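Please predict the structure of the following assembly.
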Amino acid sequence: AQKITQTQPGMFVQEKEAVTLDCTYDTSDPSYGLFWYKQPSSGEMIFLIYQGSYDQQNATEGRYSLNFQKARKSANLVISASQLGDSAMYFCAMREAPWRAGNTPLVFGKGTRLSVIA
Amino acid sequence: GAGVSQSPRYKVAKRGQDVALRCDPISGHVSLFWYQQALGQGPEFLTYFQNEAQLDKSGLPSDRFFAERPEGSVSTLKIQRTQQEDSAVYLCASSPTGMSSYNSPLHFGNGTRLTVT
Protein backbone atom coordinates (compact mmCIF):
# COMPACT_ATOMS: atom_id res chain seq x y z
CA ALA A 1 0.00 0.00 0.00
CA GLN A 2 1.26 3.43 -0.90
CA LYS A 3 2.25 5.31 2.23
CA ILE A 4 2.51 8.79 0.71
CA THR A 5 0.09 10.07 -1.91
CA GLN A 6 0.59 13.26 -3.88
CA THR A 7 -2.35 13.59 -6.26
CA GLN A 8 -1.15 16.63 -8.21
CA PRO A 9 1.43 15.68 -10.86
CA GLY A 10 1.79 19.33 -11.87
CA MET A 11 0.71 22.72 -10.58
CA PHE A 12 0.94 26.26 -11.95
CA VAL A 13 0.94 29.40 -9.85
CA GLN A 14 1.28 33.07 -10.64
CA GLU A 15 4.30 34.82 -9.18
CA LYS A 16 3.55 36.38 -5.75
CA GLU A 17 0.49 34.19 -5.26
CA ALA A 18 0.19 31.41 -2.66
CA VAL A 19 -0.04 27.74 -3.63
CA THR A 20 -0.96 24.55 -1.75
CA LEU A 21 0.62 21.21 -2.60
CA ASP A 22 -1.38 18.24 -1.37
CA CYS A 23 -0.06 15.24 0.56
CA THR A 24 -1.87 12.43 2.32
CA TYR A 25 -0.18 9.62 4.19
CA ASP A 26 -1.00 6.22 5.58
CA THR A 27 0.33 4.81 8.84
CA SER A 28 -0.92 3.01 11.91
CA ASP A 29 2.07 4.15 13.96
CA PRO A 30 1.27 6.97 16.42
CA SER A 31 4.83 8.32 16.15
CA TYR A 32 6.05 9.62 12.82
CA GLY A 33 7.62 12.59 11.13
CA LEU A 34 6.51 14.33 7.95
CA PHE A 35 8.94 16.14 5.68
CA TRP A 36 8.79 18.22 2.53
CA TYR A 37 11.70 18.40 0.11
CA LYS A 38 12.30 20.54 -2.97
CA GLN A 39 14.19 19.14 -5.94
CA PRO A 40 15.23 21.69 -8.55
CA SER A 41 16.49 20.65 -11.96
CA SER A 42 20.01 20.39 -10.52
CA GLY A 43 18.86 17.21 -8.75
CA GLU A 44 19.66 17.98 -5.13
CA MET A 45 16.95 17.25 -2.57
CA ILE A 46 16.56 20.33 -0.37
CA PHE A 47 14.86 19.96 3.00
CA LEU A 48 12.10 22.53 3.51
CA ILE A 49 10.01 21.77 6.57
CA TYR A 50 9.24 19.15 9.22
CA GLN A 51 6.12 18.26 11.18
CA GLY A 52 6.09 15.72 14.00
CA SER A 53 2.99 13.65 14.69
CA TYR A 54 2.75 14.99 18.24
CA ASP A 55 3.28 18.63 17.32
CA GLN A 56 0.30 20.71 18.33
CA GLN A 57 0.99 23.59 16.00
CA ASN A 58 1.51 23.64 12.27
CA ALA A 59 5.15 24.00 11.28
CA THR A 60 6.33 27.18 9.56
CA GLU A 61 9.67 28.04 7.94
CA GLY A 62 9.78 31.42 6.25
CA ARG A 63 7.43 31.30 3.24
CA TYR A 64 6.69 27.61 3.84
CA SER A 65 4.00 26.34 6.16
CA LEU A 66 2.57 22.91 6.67
CA ASN A 67 -1.19 22.47 7.01
CA PHE A 68 -1.24 19.38 9.27
CA GLN A 69 -4.62 17.68 9.67
CA LYS A 70 -3.87 14.57 11.69
CA ALA A 71 -7.35 13.04 11.64
CA ARG A 72 -7.41 13.29 7.85
CA LYS A 73 -3.80 12.13 7.59
CA SER A 74 -3.03 15.17 5.53
CA ALA A 75 0.13 17.29 5.44
CA ASN A 76 -0.24 19.91 2.75
CA LEU A 77 2.58 22.35 1.98
CA VAL A 78 1.66 26.00 1.56
CA ILE A 79 4.08 28.30 -0.22
CA SER A 80 3.26 31.97 0.16
CA ALA A 81 4.34 34.76 -2.19
CA SER A 82 5.63 32.38 -4.88
CA GLN A 83 8.88 33.25 -6.63
CA LEU A 84 10.23 32.12 -9.98
CA GLY A 85 12.93 30.20 -8.10
CA ASP A 86 10.26 28.06 -6.47
CA SER A 87 9.76 26.20 -9.76
CA ALA A 88 10.84 22.62 -8.95
CA MET A 89 9.62 19.17 -7.96
CA TYR A 90 8.26 18.95 -4.43
CA PHE A 91 8.21 15.70 -2.49
CA CYS A 92 6.31 14.81 0.64
CA ALA A 93 7.93 12.14 2.79
CA MET A 94 7.26 10.28 6.02
CA ARG A 95 9.37 8.42 8.51
CA GLU A 96 7.79 6.20 11.15
CA ALA A 97 9.32 5.62 14.56
CA PRO A 98 11.56 2.50 14.54
CA TRP A 99 9.74 0.55 17.25
CA ARG A 100 10.26 -2.89 15.84
CA ALA A 101 11.99 -2.82 12.50
CA GLY A 102 15.21 -1.20 13.68
CA ASN A 103 15.33 1.14 10.77
CA THR A 104 12.41 2.90 9.19
CA PRO A 105 13.52 4.65 6.04
CA LEU A 106 12.16 7.95 4.79
CA VAL A 107 9.40 7.09 2.33
CA PHE A 108 8.64 9.54 -0.49
CA GLY A 109 5.61 10.32 -2.58
CA LYS A 110 5.76 10.63 -6.37
CA GLY A 111 6.10 14.38 -6.21
CA THR A 112 4.39 17.46 -7.64
CA ARG A 113 6.01 19.64 -10.28
CA LEU A 114 5.41 23.30 -9.48
CA SER A 115 5.78 25.91 -12.18
CA VAL A 116 5.74 29.57 -11.19
CA ILE A 117 4.62 31.92 -13.95
CA ALA A 118 5.78 35.52 -14.20
CA GLY B 1 29.93 24.41 4.87
CA ALA B 2 30.51 21.23 2.90
CA GLY B 3 27.43 19.23 2.07
CA VAL B 4 27.04 15.67 0.89
CA SER B 5 29.25 15.08 -2.12
CA GLN B 6 28.63 12.41 -4.73
CA SER B 7 30.78 11.33 -7.65
CA PRO B 8 30.70 10.92 -10.51
CA ARG B 9 27.90 13.30 -11.36
CA TYR B 10 27.09 11.29 -14.51
CA LYS B 11 27.97 7.74 -15.46
CA VAL B 12 27.30 5.92 -18.69
CA ALA B 13 27.85 2.17 -18.62
CA LYS B 14 27.35 -0.54 -21.18
CA ARG B 15 25.08 -3.34 -20.16
CA GLY B 16 27.04 -5.92 -18.22
CA GLN B 17 29.66 -3.52 -16.89
CA ASP B 18 30.29 -2.97 -13.20
CA VAL B 19 29.99 0.54 -11.74
CA ALA B 20 30.97 2.14 -8.44
CA LEU B 21 29.30 5.26 -7.09
CA ARG B 22 30.87 7.27 -4.30
CA CYS B 23 29.28 9.24 -1.48
CA ASP B 24 31.13 11.55 0.87
CA PRO B 25 28.71 12.49 3.68
CA ILE B 26 28.83 15.53 5.89
CA SER B 27 31.69 15.11 8.34
CA GLY B 28 30.62 13.47 11.58
CA HIS B 29 27.28 12.27 10.29
CA VAL B 30 26.39 8.91 11.80
CA SER B 31 23.69 7.80 9.39
CA LEU B 32 24.06 7.29 5.66
CA PHE B 33 21.34 6.28 3.23
CA TRP B 34 21.29 5.34 -0.45
CA TYR B 35 18.21 5.97 -2.57
CA GLN B 36 17.35 5.19 -6.18
CA GLN B 37 15.24 7.66 -8.13
CA ALA B 38 13.78 6.57 -11.45
CA LEU B 39 12.74 9.22 -13.96
CA GLY B 40 9.58 11.01 -12.85
CA GLN B 41 9.38 9.13 -9.55
CA GLY B 42 10.17 9.80 -5.93
CA PRO B 43 13.35 8.39 -4.40
CA GLU B 44 13.17 4.80 -3.19
CA PHE B 45 15.20 3.48 -0.28
CA LEU B 46 18.06 1.08 -1.00
CA THR B 47 20.18 0.69 2.10
CA TYR B 48 21.17 2.26 5.42
CA PHE B 49 24.41 2.52 7.40
CA GLN B 50 24.91 3.59 10.97
CA ASN B 51 28.62 4.37 11.14
CA GLU B 52 30.29 1.39 9.42
CA ALA B 53 27.47 -1.07 10.10
CA GLN B 54 25.00 -1.79 7.33
CA LEU B 55 21.84 -2.13 9.38
CA ASP B 56 19.28 -2.29 6.60
CA LYS B 57 19.67 -3.49 3.04
CA SER B 58 16.05 -4.40 2.50
CA GLY B 59 15.69 -2.02 -0.46
CA LEU B 60 18.51 -3.41 -2.60
CA PRO B 61 16.73 -4.75 -5.71
CA SER B 62 19.05 -7.68 -6.36
CA ASP B 63 22.30 -9.29 -5.28
CA ARG B 64 24.01 -7.30 -8.05
CA PHE B 65 23.81 -4.29 -5.73
CA PHE B 66 26.35 -3.99 -2.96
CA ALA B 67 27.19 -1.12 -0.62
CA GLU B 68 29.91 -0.53 1.91
CA ARG B 69 31.09 2.11 4.36
CA PRO B 70 34.21 0.52 5.81
CA GLU B 71 35.43 3.38 8.03
CA GLY B 72 32.12 4.94 8.84
CA SER B 73 32.54 7.91 6.52
CA VAL B 74 32.77 7.54 2.72
CA SER B 75 30.41 5.01 1.19
CA THR B 76 30.45 3.20 -2.15
CA LEU B 77 27.47 1.71 -3.94
CA LYS B 78 28.54 -0.94 -6.43
CA ILE B 79 26.35 -2.38 -9.15
CA GLN B 80 27.61 -5.49 -10.89
CA ARG B 81 26.63 -6.57 -14.40
CA THR B 82 24.50 -3.48 -14.95
CA GLN B 83 21.13 -3.80 -16.67
CA GLN B 84 19.06 -1.17 -18.45
CA GLU B 85 16.56 -1.10 -15.59
CA ASP B 86 19.37 0.12 -13.34
CA SER B 87 19.31 3.47 -15.15
CA ALA B 88 18.31 6.04 -12.54
CA VAL B 89 19.65 8.77 -10.30
CA TYR B 90 21.33 7.39 -7.19
CA LEU B 91 21.05 9.71 -4.21
CA CYS B 92 23.07 9.57 -1.04
CA ALA B 93 21.89 11.21 2.18
CA SER B 94 23.36 11.60 5.63
CA SER B 95 22.11 12.56 9.07
CA PRO B 96 23.94 13.48 12.26
CA THR B 97 21.82 11.14 14.38
CA GLY B 98 21.24 7.40 14.53
CA MET B 99 18.27 5.46 13.28
CA SER B 100 16.14 6.09 16.34
CA SER B 101 15.87 9.79 15.48
CA TYR B 102 13.02 9.62 13.01
CA ASN B 103 12.47 13.37 13.24
CA SER B 104 15.92 14.31 11.92
CA PRO B 105 15.93 15.54 8.30
CA LEU B 106 18.25 13.88 5.82
CA HIS B 107 20.81 15.93 3.93
CA PHE B 108 21.06 14.83 0.32
CA GLY B 109 23.77 15.07 -2.30
CA ASN B 110 23.21 16.02 -5.94
CA GLY B 111 23.12 12.39 -6.98
CA THR B 112 24.78 10.31 -9.68
CA ARG B 113 22.82 9.87 -12.88
CA LEU B 114 23.51 6.37 -14.20
CA THR B 115 22.60 5.52 -17.78
CA VAL B 116 23.00 1.92 -18.91
CA THR B 117 23.11 1.50 -22.67
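Chain A has no helices and twelve strands. Chain A has a mean pLDDT of 93.
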